[in-house]
Design a protein that fits this description.
Elements lengths: L5 H26 L7 H5 L4 H18 L4 H35 L3 H18 L8 H17 L2 H19 L3 H8 L8 H29 L1 H6 L2 H22 L12 H14 L3 H5 L1 H26 L8 H35 L4
């Protein structure tokens, strides 16, 4: 019998709403803070994205470990994600790449440029800002499955930790030490160096690390829950305080320090709380809540873009009042999209019941 986790359902709902609010308002307002070093405080609060990855690894492990054919389960899981991601990539190509090819012609230089844009979009940036999350998720899922099925658990843990340390060195707290030793690596300031940093942060720092961590927690779920919140609270608080103070006192703010060590214990602590949530009523609305969360996560950026276009507003000049208006309109559109999909799904189920051979 399938096991439900009310806390995961609630987190998906809350996380999708937080992502929506962040993309409409929060990110822009944080960027306008007068003291850039205050951003170090928010490094410790970055638990939403890593927790999404951790939940994905947790649920995927429970899925493949209970499947008759684990490889087929993982393949089907990744194929579904790839189909959805590919659909949005086609939208991106139709909006940007095809018009650029028409304007610039099918010259070798233009073809190379558009191929480079498509590769960076598909692998690093995503067709929409929130969808950069998908390729690292697929990478982390595939590698976590391989490590768990083909290597020892110790080797899986060591390789994951090494990947995180590499990402940390290029895009985290350890970057300060690297720059102090080398005086700065010019290649990392180039376009291709930036691609390398993004790959390390997203694929190794987020995807591999937290998907694998979620799989480990799923494997030892009962032991994990018996540890208690205090087991994670003290190291999380101490590491957060030390790392934040070191960065604020010893580093000049740049985005290169955004991958923090304290994200790991803070996310584990947060995920522990998610798993501890109990609510019998959530299961009755589980499917609808999950559908709304997916519609909000995947659809909010296209909705925001359409709303700004219709209202003739510039996102760079979106003050608080207009920000709230766009937020509320987008939220209503996500609710409407959820209702339409839910009714379509129900209608399809009714049709199958009437004519089971159709």
């Amino acid at each position: 019998m399938r096991r439900y986790y009310p806390g995961i359902t609630i987190f998906k709902l809350a996380g999708s709403l937080i992502v929506l609010i962040a993309h409409v308002m929060l990110f822009r307002y944080f960027g306008e803070m007068p003291n850039g070093q205050m951003n170090y405080i928010f490094n410790a609060m970055k638990v939403i994205v890593p927790c999404f990855y951790m939940i994905s690894g947790f649920l995927a492990y429970r899925g493949w470990s209970g499947a008759e054919n684990p490889a087929a389960y993982v393949r089907k899981y990744l194929t579904r994600i790839l189909v959805v991601y590919g659909f949005f990539c086609l939208i991106f190509a139709g909006e940007f790449v095809v018009p650029a090819l028409i304007r610039g012609g099918l010259t070798a230089s233009n073809l190379f440029l558009q191929a480079k844009i498509m590769a960076a979009m598909f692998l690093l940036n995503g067709p929409f800002i929130q969808l950069w999350f998908i390729p690292p998720l697929m990478f982390g899922m595939l590698l976590a499955y391989f490590l768990f099925r083909r290597t020892s658990l110790r080797a899986a843990a060591v390789l994951t930790l090494l990947g995180f340390l590499l990402a940390q060195t290029l895009f985290g707290t350890l970057r300060a030490i690297l720059d102090a030793i080398t005086g700065g690596i010019p290649f990392l300031d180039t376009d291709y160096g930036g691609y390398l940093e993004l790959f390390a942060e997203r694929y190794l720092g987020y995807g591999l690390t937290f998907v694998t961590a979620g799989a480990f927690i799923a494997k030892y779920e009962e032991r994990f829950l018996r540890l208690g919140a205090r087991f994670f609270l003290v190291p999380a608080a101490v590491l957060t305080l030390i790392e934040t103070l070191l960065l604020m006192l010893g580093a000049k703010w740049t985005p290169d320090y955004s991958l923090a060590f304290c994200m790991i214990p803070n996310t584990v602590l947060f995920f522990y709380g998610v798993l501890r949530i109990k609510s019998r009523s959530i299961q009755a609305y589980h499917s609808t809540i999950n559908l709304f969360s997916m519609v909000t996560f995947f659809g909010h950026i296209p909705f925001i873009q359409i709303n700004l276009l219709l209202l003739k507003w510039d996102v760079a000049r979106l003050e608080i009042t207009r920000g709230w208006i766009v937020l509320l309109i987008t939220l209503l559109e996500c609710l409407a999209g959820t209702l339409i999909l839910a009714l379509s799904k129900r209608q399809a189920a009714w049709s199958r019941q009437r004519d089971p051979y159709s």
